[in-house]
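Please decode residue identities from the backbone states below.
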């Protein structure tokens, strides 16, 4: 997956906001929806502890990767991407 992020200006909104997208390159509607469901579950599991308040995130699914990757690996991928985005490299 790819993760894009931006810090919102002060006073715009609080909390973490997240969006999901999968292009038609991912496959038909069934494949895109399956990939987005998996991304939603990964975000639900990871963002409360690793995301930052006042940030917007967009998770982008890829063909043959988001659908087939084991769920724990997807979680690790998101945690790694967030650590790179926020500068706390481990």
């Amino acid at each position: 997956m790819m993760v894009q992020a931006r810090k919102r200006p002060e006073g715009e909104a609080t909390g973490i906001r997240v969006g999901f997208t999968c292009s038609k390159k991912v496959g038909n509607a069934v494949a895109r929806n399956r990939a987005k469901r998996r991304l939603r579950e990964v975000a639900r599991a990871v963002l409360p502890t690793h995301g930052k308040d006042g940030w917007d995130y967009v998770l982008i699914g890829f063909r043959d990767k988001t659908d087939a990757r084991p769920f724990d690996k997807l979680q690790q991928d998101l945690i790694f991407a967030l650590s790179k985005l926020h500068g706390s490299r481990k």
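Observation: The longest strand covers residues 2-7.
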